[in-house]
Amino acid sequence: LKSVVQNDALDDSLRARALFETGMVYERQNEFPSALKTFGSLTSKYPNSTFADNATLEAGRSAFRGNNFEQALVCADTIIVRPASEFRRQAYVLAAEASSGQGNDVEAAGYYRWFLLLYPNDPFEADIMMRLGDLYCQKTDQERNAIEVYDQLIQRYPRYFNVATAMYDISLCQEKLNDFDGAVTTCKKLLERYPATARQTISMNASPH
């Protein structure tokens, strides 16, 4: 009997893996409805499979790439409420992207902030900080939050490839706040610290932000 149970478990694992790999093929071929259906079949038939959470995440990514932001957010939130899931970190990012896709930048910023709170020193922390700063920078009445996030990014990651853009965006936020002296000071610091990239950054962003 024990041998039969073990064989059944092995068979289920193989079936779950086959469904996952099939879903990934659909996703790579941009056949997102088929990918969603396949990943959904895996999670419904084999909810305890080691592939289940990964399938839920990939279903969310397929939904997002297919502009089904609502479904993408549902998939992301499904993982987020599972503290033990190894895919929770990626789920926060997906949730933020899906929320932004729905036009809900406030909710998107909330997901990014949770990511930064829960995963300090993550390899992608600088990228997430930049995304969060950009969300705030583009919203009216959020300029001070943007400046705060950009400042933290610059202090923690002075060698980050996009740090010159972050400094320039600080100056834009200062202009919006009518802090013109501060904006000039920031641009001077930008030219002093990153002369190789500062002029290119200013030139590329010279059009309205």
Structure summarized in a few sentences:
The chain has helices spanning 2-28, 32-45, 52-65, 69-80, 88-101, 105-118, 125-137, 143-156, 163-176, 180-193, 195-204. The chain has 209 residues and is mostly helical. α3 (52-65) packs parallel to α5, α6 (105-118) runs antiparallel to α7 and α8 packs antiparallel against α9.
Characterize the structure shown:
With 209 residues, the chain is mainly alpha-helical. Helix content is 77%, strand content 0%. It is built from eleven helices and no strands. The longest helix has 27 residues, at 2-28.
Helix count, DSSP H or I runs of 4 or more residues: 11
Order of helices and strands: HHHHHHHHHHH
Cα-based radius of gyration, to the nearest Å: 22 Å
Distance between the termini: 68 Å
Sheet of most strands: none
Q: Unreliable stretches, pLDDT < 50, 5 or more residues? A: 1-7
> What is the residue-mean pLDDT, rounded to a whole number?
90
**Helix percentage:** over 70%
β-strand amount: under 5%
**What class, by secondary structure content?**
mainly alpha
Shape: elongated
Number of strands: 0
List keywords for this structure.
0% strand; mainly alpha; 77% helix; 209 residues
Any chance you could write out the topology, listing elements then pairs?
Layout: H1 2-28, H2 32-45, H3 52-65, H4 69-80, H5 88-101, H6 105-118, H7 125-137, H8 143-156, H9 163-176, H10 180-193, H11 195-204
